[in-house]
Amino acid sequence: MLPYNPSGLFPTGRPPRPTYREPNPVGGAGVAAGALGTLAWLVLFGLLGGSLVGYVWWTLLAGVLAWLTALVMVGYGDRGVAAGIAIVTAGGWSIATAAVVTRWMSSGDWPLW
Q1: Cβ contact 62:85 at 8 Å
Q2: Domain definitions of the chain by residue range
Q3: Region Disordered: start and end of each range (predicted)?
Q4: How far apart are CA 75 and CA 68, in angstroms?
Q5: How many CA atoms lie within 13 A of 11 on its CB side?
Q6: SS3 sequence, the chain?
Q7: Does the predicted model carry a pTM greater than 0.85?
Q8: What is the pLDDT of residue 112?
């Protein structure tokens, strides 16, 4: 016969099992704030470029600076904000890559130099 395993509904006299919780949980508001801030950051830097080449290089620079900010936020700040920064930066770099590949395919010439 199997030993009886209590469900936990009634106290058994044993101490409760430990619960491990995240000291700084990632919240949706932090992710949204990081995403919106990074979106504005990438748009402002992208507008500095007057052509596709300028747009791509400014977007890469803005993305690197955003990632450095995200690394600082992971260590000393809100990790939700860092996640939002990382997600939107990856999306911005993907858009820049798609623009370069589209131009490259249509012209047959590498557009970045």
Answers
A1: no
A2: 39-107
A3: 1-23
A4: 11
A5: 4
A6: CCCCCCCCCCCCCCCCCCCCCCCCCCCHHHHHHHHHHHHHHHHHHHHHCCCHHHHHHHHHHHHHHHHHHHHHHHHHCCHHHHHHHHHHHHHHHHHHHHHHHHHHHHHCCCCCC
A7: no
A8: 86
